[in-house]
């Protein structure tokens, strides 16, 4: 059933939905512009959170990569900042039996000082869970079940804590046409070049996706780099 234009001064049929929340609809670009100041106050696409969920069972479309904009669900973490606290909260609030880091991916805009950090259950095991196609493409490996996405980054860099649904969607959309492992290696290399001044152009075997120097396991338990050394 068609809905009316969301602009308060218009009663025409809404033909195009807001790309941020997919709820408000407008009959024209002019109406969308005129209603922006009002709509942005409630639009989920513009509100910032420190975590979003991607539900595998919501990807019921035959082409889930074409409905990415509808999938991220805000899930603000109260105990954000350490892996231990975040994993405990995810298990408690979502009823997960386990929580572990299952991957990470950089954004669509060329950033190399922070990335998206992905939590899931039982790394690498299906256990009857639906395949999470969107998370699989972003992380560069098969993922099953629901996942939680936050921001993280290498030690020594300030990582913005919160982000909007619309920004996350752009990053997820990016991996419809880009390979996660290639992007990750390129961003890691570019950051190392900038930091050290070394020429790493001939180094093609860096597998940076297996190392994470960023997520302190718990306050006071991380090493002097304020992160953890070793394969993630």
Helix and strand element order: EEHEEEHEEHEEHH
Report strand %: 5-15%
Global Rg? 20 Å
Q: Could you say which structural class the secondary elements and strand pairing correspond to?
A: alpha+beta
Major β-sheet annotation = 5 strands, antiparallel
Averaged pLDDT: 81
What does this structure look like?
The protein is an alpha+beta fold and 232 residues long. 25% of the residues lie in helices and 13% in strands. It is built from 5 helices and 9 strands; from the N terminus they run E-E-H-E-E-E-H-E-E-H-E-E-H-H. The protein has helices at residues 29-39, 83-94, 133-139, 165-174, 180-196; strands spanning 16-17, 25-26, 48-49, 52-54, 73-74, 100-105, 115-120, 147-152, 163-164. The protein has a 5-stranded antiparallel beta sheet with strand order 5-4-8-7-6. The protein has a two-stranded antiparallel sheet with strand order 1-2. A hairpin with a 7-residue loop joins strand 1 (16-17) and strand 2 (25-26).
Lay out the secondary structure.
Elements: E1 16-17, E2 25-26, H1 29-39, E3 48-49, E4 52-54, E5 73-74, H2 83-94, E6 100-105, E7 115-120, H3 133-139, E8 147-152, E9 163-164, H4 165-174, H5 180-196
Antiparallel strand pairs: 1-2, 3-9, 4-5, 4-8, 6-7, 7-8
């Amino acid at each position: 059933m068609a809905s009316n234009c969301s602009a308060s001064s218009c009663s025409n049929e809404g033909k195009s939905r807001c790309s941020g929340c997919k709820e408000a609809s407008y009959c024209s670009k002019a109406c969308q512009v005129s209603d922006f100041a009002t709509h942005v106050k409630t639009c989920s696409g513009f509100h910032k959170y420190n975590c979003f969920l991607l539900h595998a069972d919501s990807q019921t479309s035959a082409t889930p990569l074409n409905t990415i904009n509808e999938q991220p669900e805000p899930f603000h973490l109260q105990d954000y900042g350490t892996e231990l606290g975040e994993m405990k909260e995810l298990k408690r609030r979502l009823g997960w039996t386990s929580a572990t880091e299952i991957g990470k991916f950089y954004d669509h805009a060329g950033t190399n000082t922070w990335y998206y950090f992905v939590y899931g259950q039982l790394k690498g095991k299906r256990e009857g869970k639906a395949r999470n196609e969107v998370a699989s493409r972003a992380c560069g490996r098969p993922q099953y079940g629901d996942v939680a996405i936050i921001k993280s980054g290498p030690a020594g860099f300030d990582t913005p804590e919160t982000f909007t649904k619309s920004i996350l969607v752009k990053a997820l959309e990016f991996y419809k046409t880009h390979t996660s492992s290639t992007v990750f290696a390129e961003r890691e290399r570019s950051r190392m070049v900038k930091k050290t001044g070394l020429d790493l152009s001939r180094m093609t075997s860096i597998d940076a996706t297996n190392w994470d120097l960023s997520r302190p396991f718990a306050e006071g338990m991380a090493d002097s780099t304020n992160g953890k050394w070793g394969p993630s």
